[in-house]
């Protein structure tokens, strides 16, 4: 479980982690959050607000971590932290994967959903890079009629 706090610290330094209720709410309302994480000792009101943020954010996945608020805060350089939101699909999939390794029954579905989203995002990114490369090198796709003639 030591890898989860280190991943969260890395995401925080990369600027892909919102910490606290107000920043998490803003990221969720902007539909940029992929994964919302709660400390297991978070207050009931915090949990209720987190679930509300997940509904407001485009199907954001909400998970409870096996870490306390103090443990999460220490990995981020704060005294405590009850709520986090990850706005990068790669980091979100990596955290869900690490959680599912430890407890597949609880976190397996979230891992599957986020890995599918990550695969789709990678495919879109690769297609965009290939398209930009074709534009730089001057390659153009064949006109539609020529393609249809080749298929006949």
What this model shows, in words?
This protein has about 150 residues and is of the alpha+beta class. It is built from seven helices and four strands; from the N terminus they run H-E-H-E-H-E-H-E-H-H-H. It has a four-stranded mixed β-sheet, sandwiched between helices.
Query: Globular, elongated, flat, extended or rod-shaped: what is the shape?
Result: elongated
Distance between termini? 58 Å
How many DSSP-defined strands? 4
Query: Could you tell me the radius of gyration in angstroms?
Result: 20 Å
Spell the H/E element sequence. HEHEHEHEHHH
Number of H/I helices: 7
Residues in helices, as a percent range: 55-70%
Provide the structure class: alpha+beta
Biggest sheet details: 4 strands, mixed
Contiguous runs where pLDDT drops below 50 for at least 5 residues: none
Estimate the strand proportion. 5-15%
Q: Give the overall pLDDT as a whole number.
A: 88
């Amino acid at each position: 479980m030591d890898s989860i706090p280190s991943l969260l610290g890395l995401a925080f330094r990369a600027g892909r982690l919102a910490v606290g209720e107000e920043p998490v709410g803003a990221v969720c309302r902007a539909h940029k959050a992929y994964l919302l994480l709660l400390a297991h000792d978070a207050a009931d009101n915090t949990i209720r607000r987190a679930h509300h943020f997940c509904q407001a954010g485009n199907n954001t996945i909400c998970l409870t971590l096996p870490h306390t608020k103090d443990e999460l805060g220490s990995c981020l350089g704060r005294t405590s932290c009850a709520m986090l939101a990850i706005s990068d699909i790669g980091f979100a999939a990596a955290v869900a994967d690490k959680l599912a390794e430890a407890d597949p029954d609880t976190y397996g579905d979230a891992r599957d959903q986020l890995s599918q989203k990550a695969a789709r995002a990678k495919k879109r990114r690769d297609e965009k890079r290939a398209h930009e490369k074709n534009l730089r090198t001057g390659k153009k796709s064949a006109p539609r009629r020529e393609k249809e003639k080749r298929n006949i």
